[in-house]
Amino acid sequence: MKQVLVTGGAGYIGTHTCVELLARGYTPVVVDNFVNSSPAALDRVRRLTNHELRSYEADVRDTARITEILKKHDCEAVIHFAGLKAVGDSVARPLDYYSANVIGTHSLLSAMMEAGTGRFVFSSSATVYGEPEFLPYTESHRLSPTNPYGQTKLSVELMLKDLVESGGMTDVAILRYFNPIGAHASGEIGEDPHGVPNNLMPFVAQVAVGRRPALNVFGNDYDTPDGTGVRDYLHVVDLARAHVLALERFEREPGAITVNLGTGHGTSVLELVSAFEAASGRKVPINFGPRRCGDIAAFWADPSQAEALLGWRAEYGLADMCRDQWAWQSQNPNGFELA
Ligand code: NAD
Ligand code: UD1
User: Fold this and answer.
1) d(CA 8, CA 28)
2) In the chain, which end has fewer C-beta atoms inside a 10 angstrom radius, N or C?
3) Which residues of the chain have pLDDT under 50?
C-alpha cells in the first residue's frame, strides 16, 4: 500500500494524476479546499477508476490537520498541486497568492517534517523562466518570472533547494510544466475553469460548444511564423504520468531533481484553433485583438532532462489533445456541477 497525499487533488491536473496513480498501484489520499474545484470531480475519478478514493476538505495552510492526515494514512510521499494559478489575478491580489502558494507550501513541508514524510513532488511552471534568453528553455535557463504567480513558484523552488541543502529532505522533484491541455480520453474528467477562461484551450473549447461567440486572439504581429503566440502544449495525461515516474524514481535513485515537462514543440494559436476545428468538426470563429499585457511571443521546452532522469517523454500529439478536450467539453458543456 503506497499511500500518497495529493494536495489539490480535485483540480485539473490532480484528478488526472489520481487516475494514473491508481492505475500504477498507488493509493492517493486527496486534500483540497475546493477553492477552484468541486467534490464532484473526485466522484468522477471514483466512477472512472472503480476505486475508493479518500478525500479531505482541508487547507494546506492548516499544518496540524495535514500532519494528522499524513500520519493517519502513513503517507510515503506528497504530490503538491494545491495553489492559485491565474496570472492576472495574482497581479491584482498578490498577498493571496503568496499565502496560498508560499505559506501553503511552507505549512505542508512543516507537516511532512512532523509526520516523517520524506518525498515531495512539486508543481512548478515554465513561468519561472520569464523572457527567453534562448529557446528551447533548458532547466539551467535564467529564472526571472515577470508576475507574482511566477514569483511564488520560484520562491517555493528556492525554499525546496535550501531544504535539500540543509539535509532536511532528500527526495524532491520540481516539475516545471509547460502548457497542459486536453482531458482523460473517457471525457469523464477535464478542466473546469470558473468564469471566463484565462487560458487558450478552455476558451477555444467553450467557443466550439457554443458557450462563447468567438475567440479573441491576443496579437497577430509577433515575430512567429503566423504572427500569433507559440506555446508548448502537452497532454494532461502525459503530464500526470510524469508524477508517477517521479515517485518511481525516488525508489530507484533518491535525490533532488528539476525537470521541464513539455513536448519540445511549439504550436501557434492559429495552429491550435485549426487542430481543434478538425477534431471537433466545429467552427471556431476568431477576432484578432491586441497583445495581452505580459505575454511572451514564443516559448517551448527542452524536455531531454525528463527523459534522462524519469524515462518520460510526451506520447500524445496535438490531435489527441484536441480530441480528448472535445470529448470532455462536448459531454460536459457546463463542467462538473451542471453536467
Ligand atoms: P487547479 O486550480 O485545477 O487545481 C488546484 C487545486 O488546488 C484546486 O482543486 C483548488 O481547489 C486547490 N487548492 C487551492 N488552494 C488550496 C489550499 N490552500 N489548500 C487546499 N487546496 C487548495 O489547477 P491545476 O491546473 O490542476 O494546477 C495544479 C498545480 O499546477 C498548481 O499549483 C498550478 O500552479 C500548477 N501549474 C498549472 C499549470 C496549468 O496550466 N494548469 C501550469 C503550470 C503549473
Ligand atoms: C499562461 C500564464 C502562465 C501559466 C500558463 C499555464 C499568463 C500571462 N501566463 O500562460 O504563467 O504558466 O498560462 O497555466 O497568463 N491566447 C489568446 N486568446 C485567449 C487566451 C490565450 O490568443 O483567449 C493566446 C495567448 O496570447 C498565448 C497563447 O494563447 O499566446 C496561450 O495562452 P495561455 O493558454 O493563457 O497560456 P500562457 O500564455 O502560456
Assistant:
1) 12
2) N
3) 339
Burial label for 21, CB within 10 Å (0-12, 13-18, 19+), is buried
Taking CA 176 as the corner, what is the angle to CA 54 and CA 38, rounded to the nearest 5 degrees? Answer: 30
CATH dotted code for 2-181+234-263+301-314: 3.40.50.720
DSSP H or E segment with residue 175: strand 171-177
Nearest CA to ligand 2 atom 2: 87
d(CA 327, CA 214): 20
Listed by start position, the domains of the chain span 2-181+234-263+301-314
Look up the pTM and report it.
Answer: 0.98
pLDDT tens digits along 176-188: 999 999 999 999 9
3-state secondary structure 25-51: CEEEEEEECCCCCCHHHHHHHHHHHCC
- Cα 199 to ligand 2 centroid, rounded to whole Å: 5
From residue 281, alpha-carbon distances to 70, 163, 184, 185 in Å are: 47, 50, 19, 17
Q: Which residue ranges have their beta carbon within 6 Å of ligand 1?
A: 7-8, 10-14, 31-37, 59-61, 81-85, 100, 104, 123, 125, 177, 179-180
Tell me, using a 6 A CB cutoff, whether residue 128 lines ligand 2.
no
Beta carbons within 8 Å of 23's beta carbon, 6+ residues apart: 49
